[in-house]
Amino acid sequence: MADGPENVLFAPFGGQAPDPELFLSSVLDGWERQQRAKDFSPTTIRSRRRLVLAMVDFTGHYPWDWTMADADEFFSHARGVRNLSHSTVRSYQGAIKLFCDYACDSRYDWSEQAATLFGRVFGQIVTELNKVTHAHPTDARPAKRPFTQRELQEFFDLADLEVHRILDSGRRGALAAWRDSVAFKTAYGWGLRVNELRHLQQVDFSRNNRAPYLGDHGVLRVRWGKPHRGSAKKVRTVLTVWQWTADTIHDWVERGLPRYGYPITDLFPTSTGGLLSETHLIHKLRTLVDELGFPPGLDLHSFRRAYATNLITGEGFDVTFVQLQLGHEHASTTSIYSLPSPDYQRLALERAHDRTLAAARQPRNEHRSTP
């Protein structure tokens, strides 16, 4: 019926009933090609395909038989019974909506073929009536928070102390503890996500001609940034802000990294030459945080939160600059981090008191004229 291989009519021959499983597989294959053309990642495409099949299994209906009631039941079960997060359910709805948009599009003829084969057509089942609203600029859980400046200092001091404790005890693992300490400082020093941190390599650092005092670590090229809607990894450039972070990386590259052998390209390798795992970093962070007795709410992303909060509210950097550093698409996302931290509020109050006391100590001008 159609000319191209994308739209082939599955007409029954020999009196056999049409095969819905074969037809559904063909629709999903076509949707996969369409997503690849839009540069979505293979992982995203596979997860969306599994989601469509999961909804078919849950509802007992094929997509051309789906109704809004099916969608309501599927998503309410995901939220209420499976206890999936708000953001996860919203992403599920977005994937199903994209699939329905594709299947309903007359340019692909899938609805026409479904009508011929099964007497039904595709319809959009995710609308404003049942779609999870995105009322907030972030889906982050309120319990999650940034490190305060005091907590950061105590955390980094304990991470450094862990190296000496291992050396003094004669146990193995001092090099790994040193690597973890530098990794945590790097996550904070450049405001990195955990996956960006894990994939760092030596070649990602370069000089900043405007800041030669930072040496070879004045600019960081992040090549594994968070993708937009499943597309390829986003690349961004992060400028080094603090001298101590450049010194930390320089010391690690010169004295620590060569102990893993040569050549080494990854900045934070394992003893077997693999990538440092997120599970290991989480376990190490929890161990140190528990030993320090910090209040709950801290995770690996707390370093990134602390970086942005300190730049905006602590040191007065412009939100646009911090937005570019973090790789946020919208300034509204960056402004989330502009909520004053306790340290910022305390310092601001101290500065206000100092100004008041300084003004009170100034000698009064007895000959001042009345305005």
Automatic annotation (TrEMBL):
Protein name stated in the entry: Recombinase XerD
Domain Tyr recombinase: from-to ranges: 151-350
Gene3D superfamilies: 1.10.150.130, Intergrase catalytic core
PANTHER family: INTEGRASE_RECOMBINASE PROTEIN MJ0367-RELATED, PHAGE INTEGRASE-RELATED
GO MF, any single term: DNA binding
Keywords, in A-Z order: DNA recombination, DNA-binding
Organism field: Microbacterium aurantiacum
InterPro entries: DNA_brk_join_enz, Integrase-like_cat_sf, Integrase_catalytic, Integrase_recombinase_N, Tyrosine_recombinase_XerCD
Family note: Belongs to the 'phage' integrase family.
Biological process terms in GO annotation: DNA integration; DNA recombination
